[in-house]
Write a structure and sequence with these properties.
Blueprint lengths: L6 E4 L2 E4 L3 H13 L8 E4 L8 H4 L4 E2 L8 H12 L5 H21 L5 E2 L2 E2 L1 E2 L9 E2 L5 H14 L4 E4 L3 E8 L2 E8 L5 E5 L3 E3 L20 H8 L4 E2 L4 E8 L11 H5 L3 E3 L19 H15 L4 E4 L5 H7 L1 H9 L9 E10 L2 E3 L11 E3 L4 E2 L11 H20 L14 H6 L4 H26 L5 H20 L5 H22 L21 E6 L2 E6 L4
Helix pairs in contact: 1-5, 1-11, 3-4, 4-11, 6-15, 13-14, 13-15, 14-15
Bound molecules: flavin-adenine dinucleotide (FAD).
């Protein structure tokens, strides 16, 4: 098929992403339109439904279900972790809707762990109460399994696997669909008056990260290229305890392990985190990550260690079967020896700016899940609030869509494919393979550069060095253009890195997960969001500031 005559498919709503946010939003849209069997929802994923960051989530979902706990306590913890940058209205929505979402998930068939008949709850860092629900240490897998089965059972939802969304179709500033590359390497148009980006985070932009390979920041890059507002991208949460074994991926050792009583120690056995914060291992993640980072630098050691000796072996076996299995694969017996750990990029707090109903600054375009910035996380996410956010805001988004009652026949086809796809892409297979090899090299250099210059500790000199190299790669990539996944994802990662580093240079203070050693203090004057639209960057007051 030639680039000028792409295949066209029309839907009433398109959801891009098959993680918690995408699956749940598609189901909620289906429920909103259950009365209309002709209402068609397209659910697009670039892999299969089982592959997402959600599938990798371990610890659980935060929700007030215990009678001694209260939504106000949950809100207080969330606001405290967010360090002055949470939108209070969004936090209120989050904590007050949590219990309802858990009830709905249980009704859909999610099998959370129980103590007898009541839902079992664990403690995670910076939560003042035990309020994290879990399904052993594979909570995300339990969610994806159940939600995907529900999605596949709905005739109103059509799943398009192996379909990589490239960019948005805009006509007169209104979003009416997407361009995508299907599994036959053809460019297709998917049109709908409602487009929901649920594409997850972008932590793959760092060489050291806990995310699946698919977390390449596609949604943020796509929305930004289309002119949407994106917000607070400098705030990336670094997890203090990723498995640190040469050759092993940075597998996450869940915070729940510390919540259940594990200690962070150095080679000499010292619980060093107390020297950095009186809350020790259970201080917020940015503090623990910086403590580990600083202690690694001070001691010159390659790793710190997580010691599980204080947890009863039966509890370890019951709560962390997957961690036991993965560590065993790397010859670490967690019952007998401490786990070598190091910090790694884990979660992106910033994203596409949305209101509390999921609407972005572009009419017709919505965002939900990790790619969105609803305002609930502020400068640092409270552990286990992110899965909850997918459900709470996915449901609200579906309600907002229903209330608008848009007509798919009104969707207009854009007149042109973006230049990059129409003419610049390589056609010859030999040229494509050479271009893709060069693109792969840029990708790994980019990941190393971002880790070095925009990692746990940042300063102007490093960030500016990083930015100028990234701008060079952005131009080089245009020349290497090909319709291949490596090119498309590297382009998105490069745009994501550009936005992240520009935001990190802009914010001349330290707050939450953003630490500038040249501006180590938190400044009241910086209690504002960092917003980027096209090339413009500016500070924006909080809604209720
Ligand atoms: C190891 C790990 C452990 C975690 N543990 C927890 C936890 O215990 N509790 C918690 O609350 N949070 C946890 N998180 C964070 C949480 O898992 C994520 O924030 C959440 O799952 C994000 O869901 P999502 O649906 O927004 O994105 P994802 O689950 O990442 O799904 C993104 C989807 O978008 C698709 N996609 C992306 N780009 C495109 C494109 N261009 N075209 C088509 N499809 C595309 C992908 O294929 C995928 O289906 C963890 C994260 C990791 C990595």
């Amino acid at each position: 098929m030639s680039a000028s005559s792409p295949k066209i498919e029309k839907f009433d709503a398109l959801v891009i992403g098959g993680g918690a946010a995408g699956l749940y939003t598609a189901l909620c849209l289906q429920q909103e339109y259950a009365h209309n069997p002709n209402y068609r929802i397209g659910l697009v994923t670039k892999d299969e439904l089982q592959i997402s960051a959600t599938d990798w989530a371990q610890g659980g979902i935060a929700a007030v279900v215990d009678p001694s706990d209260r939504p106000e306590f949950h809100a207080e913890d969330t606001l405290k972790a967010g360090n002055g940058l949470c939108e209070p209205a969004a936090v209120e929505v989050l904590v007050n809707s949590a219990k309802r979402q858990i009830e709905q998930l249980v009704a859909l068939g999610v099998d959370f762990d129980r103590d007898g008949t009541t839902l079992a709850l664990t403690l995670e860092a910076a939560h003042s109460r035990r309020r994290v629900l879990h399904a052993a240490d594979t909570t995300g897998r339990a969610l994806v399994h159940t939600l995907a089965a529900q999605v596949l059972a709905q005739p109103q939802i059509q799943v398009l696997n192996q379909t990589l969304v490239l960019d948005l179709c805009l006509v007169a500033g209104i979003c009416g669909g997407v361009y995508a590359l299907n599994s036959h390497q053809e460019i297709i148009y998917l049109l709908a008056p409602v487009v929901v980006l649920a594409t997850g985070g972008g932590a793959q932009v760092f060489a050291q990260n806990t995310n699946p390979p698919s977390s390449t920041g596609d949604g943020v890059a796509i929305a930004w290229r289309a002119g949407a507002l994106v917000r607070d991208l400098e705030f990336v949460q670094f997890h203090p305890t990723a498995l640190a074994i040469p050759g092993a991926p940075r597998f996450l050792i869940s915070e729940a392990v510390r919540g259940e009583g594990a200690y962070l120690i150095d080679r000499s056995g010292d619980r060093f985190t107390f020297a950095y914060d009186p809350r020790g291992e259970l201080a917020p993640r940015d503090i623990v990550s910086r403590a580990v980072f600083s202690h690694l630098q001070q001691t010159g050691e390659p790793t710190m260690f997580l010691d599980l000796q204080a947890i009863a072996p039966e509890k370890i076996a019951h709560r962390f079967p997957n961690i036991i299995k993965i560590c065993q694969q790397w010859q670490v017996d967690i019952f007998a020896q401490p786990i070598p750990v190091t910090p790694a990029a884990h979660y992106c707090m910033g994203g596409i700016t949305t209101d509390t109903m999921g609407a972005t600054s572009i009419p017709g375009l919505y965002a939900v899940g990790e790619c969105a910035s609803t305002g609930v996380h502020g400068a640092n996410r409270l552990a286990s609030n992110s899965l909850l956010e997918c459900f709470v805001f996915g449901e609200r988004l579906a309600m907002a869509v229903r209330s608008q009652n848009l007509d798919p026949s009104s969707t207009k086809l854009p007149e042109f494919l973006p230049l990059a796809w129409k003419s610049a892409c390589k056609q010859d297979p030999i040229q494509i393979s050479e271009a893709d090899n060069n693109t792969a090299k840029i990708k790994s250099q980019l990941q190393e550069l971002v880790w070095k210059t925009a990692g746990i500790v940042r300063d102007r000199e490093g960030l500016e060095l990083g930015l100028s190299q990234i701008e060079t790669w952005q131009i080089e990539l245009i020349k290497l253009c090909s319709n291949s996944r490596i090119w498309i994802e590297t382009r998105n990662l490069t745009d994501y890195a550009y936005l992240l580093i520009r935001s990190a240079i802009f914010r001349t203070e330290s707050r939450g997960a953003h630490f500038r050693q040249d501006f180590p203090k938190t400044e009241i004057s910086w209690q504002v969001h960092t917003v980027i639209q096209a090339e413009k960057i500016y500070a924006q007051l909080l809604d209720q500031a």
